[in-house]
Amino acid sequence: MKLTTVTQLTVDGVVQGNGGASDEDRRNGFERGGWAWGKGDQDTLAFINETYQRADAFLFGRRTYDLFAGSWGSMSAAAAPGREPILRALNERPKYVASTTLAAPAWSGASVLSGDLASAVADLKAGPGGELQVHGSGTLVRWLLEQGLVDEMILLVIPVVLGQGKRLFPRNGPDLALDLIESRVDTKGVTTQVWRPAGRPQYAGR
């Protein structure tokens, strides 16, 4: 399976607390949650729905798993107008959680990856199916990139600068070249970018 990460982030790279609840993630005094809710137009919603529909399985970090299980895992179709494909995909397809503390996930179809995580993810990628998707899970995404396990990155950049919050990439970290596969801007200013990792960047004079 191809491993694809799907991340909503601000122009200044923040990924923390993007969902519909302003108090979704208050770690480290974060007070500006809910910044992505309702920001995209219908074309962006259709793109997100189509992305979830093509997933054969999902991989989550522990925090994102808890958030998704607590919302999408108990949501009715009536409570998700326009997002029914997301709801069906998340509840019908296998879900894997990268965690050393979760023992028995309650969400139907979810299981914990135990042992060596890099080997476990590599085994999933080597198995049948088209696409293994990682939504949110910023800490996990950074680790997967460092391990060379990401095949494609989808970034949905919301036109807002927060000035606080946890960012997708740290101030000091590994470097990575990217090839742009697709890019579009919707009528509300949300930019969708599809990237493929392309080794290390080239630097002037080297």
UniProtKB/TrEMBL annotation:
Domain of life: Bacteria
Domain spans labelled Bacterial bifunctional deaminase-reductase C-terminal: 3-191
InterPro entries, alphabetized: DHFR-like_dom_sf, RibDG_C, Riboflavin_Biosynth_HTPR
Gene Ontology terms, MF aspect: 5-amino-6-(5-phosphoribosylamino)uracil reductase activity
GO biological process: riboflavin biosynthetic process
Name recorded for this polypeptide: Dihydrofolate reductase
Biological source species: Amycolatopsis dendrobii
Source species taxonomy: Bacteria, Bacillati, Actinomycetota, Actinomycetes, Pseudonocardiales
